[in-house]
Write a structure and sequence with these properties.
- This protein has 379 residues and is of the alpha+beta class.
- 37% of the residues lie in helices and 14% in strands.
- It contains 12 helices and 11 strands.
- It has helices spanning 2-19, 25-44, 90-103, 119-127, 137-141, 154-162, 170-180, 195-209, 213-220, 277-288, 298-302, 362-377; strands at 50-57, 62-69, 84-85, 232-233, 250-251, 256-257, 273-275, 321-325, 328-335, 339-344, 349-355.
- Strands 2-1-11-10-9-8 form a 6-stranded antiparallel beta sheet, sandwiched between helices. A 3-stranded antiparallel beta sheet has the order 3-7-4.
- Strand 5 and strand 6 form a beta hairpin.
- Helix 2 (25-44) packs antiparallel against helix 12, helix 3 (90-103) runs parallel beside helix 8 (195-209) and helix 8 (195-209) packs across helix 9 (213-220).
- The chain is globular, with a radius of gyration of 22 Å.
Amino acid sequence: MRCIQTLLILLIVFNCKVAFGQKSSIQTDIEGRFQNLIDSFYNAHPQTKGIAMCIEAPDRSISWCGAIGNANSAGLKLTPDIPANIASNTKTYVAAAIIRLVELNKLKLDQPIRGLISHHNDSLLSADHYDLSSITVLHLLSNTSGIFDFVNTDRFQQMTVSEPYHHWTRDEQIALAISDGDLMWAPGAQFSYSETNYSLLTEIIERLTGKPFYVAMRELLHFQELELNHTWFILQEKQPERVSALAEQFATKYKVNSLTLDPSFDAFGGGGLASTVSDLARFTYYLFNGKVFENIESVPLMLTETATQDEIPSKYYMGIQEREIGGLKTYGHGGFWGTTVQYFPDLNTSIAVFLMERDEWPVYLELIAKVTEVLEQRK
């Protein structure tokens, strides 16, 4: 009888520890392994300048974030609470917002973009021989529209170095794609990654909602309900209160960093969001687990590949790219400044990584592969 009473007391004590947020030794051990991983990768690759990582794996009772290195050139210690410019990771959010408009019956994916974008840009594109009755919303989402990417124009590349503080507008960048670039091919002929596509998608969001795209996206994607309190559009919104200053991210090869370029250079859908590594990991987990969309069919819809006439698979769907990491299929996206998030359906896990030096981006693929090895051992 006394043994039973002792066992009950131990169970109560254990449960109280869990209830008050104290971690079990198993949790502490696995979190230590994750920290050791990023520590060892940082020590092996100090050129990364800093690494932050967050893992959301509820099926394995894991919700962990860690960091090592510096958040800026002044030597500020990097922590998971310091937000960063997530650049092209923004495309996943834009694509998800478009799918939400499809759910609300405001839009169809096979709908031509004529009449959906602004009259100004409709006229410019049409005058440059783009057939807007043949280019659909899906072509923009899947980067198969044939519309030239303003980033690939010589003028844009030169100005990011010679005039880093130039304040761009969305119309200016779209006009640059038209004036300095040419129609690449007919809609649906080939895949070609283009920031211009996503700039046009934000115009569509605005025209269909009657709101600035960043306001509409915040509502469509349930930012408040999902408590994405450390995610915001850098150019268009005020930084949330009690959120750390943005990290300084480096692109040494291009002789720029994220704080010396005016944020308008990448702010209109192709990029533009700032986030903590935790918010990015959680949003991605929510996206694939029914917390963002209203219809269960919307996730597989977002992962539908657009066939092209050249029959070369791109594995780029709607703001999401499929790849294999550590022998496992994953869906995710990367950002110019060294950010990435990957969702592993077989593990029901999202992993987000920030590197402070984007030139070292292969490191995050190696790191994520090592993380999956640890996760596969914990079933």
